[in-house]
Here is the input.
Amino acid sequence: FHRRVYIDTTRKSLVVQGANGPKFFPFASMKEVDIETRTTKEGRVETLVICAIEKRGRIVKELNLSFPDQARANTFVNCVTLFSLALRSGGGGK
Here is the structure.
């Protein structure tokens, strides 16, 4: 499925716009962001980004996002990791 993914700065969340409306994933609750590459049944290579969502110290959900190439996935992982670490540490330099 193709979904729009964007950042809501007021809610400090990653937003996935789906058919049933937006779903918000706060950066502060993202425990880790991993990247892996796999080959589909059709023979295409795709890059998966997996965001572990944490509540009360436990991982409750994994958000799986697929990217057509490694470079875009790496850029996304770097940005999400930066936002997540900044918001987890209390906001830093402001």
Summary: The helical segments are 70-88. The first strand starts at residue 4 and ends at 8. The chain has a mean pLDDT of 85. Residues 70-88 form the longest helix (19 residues).
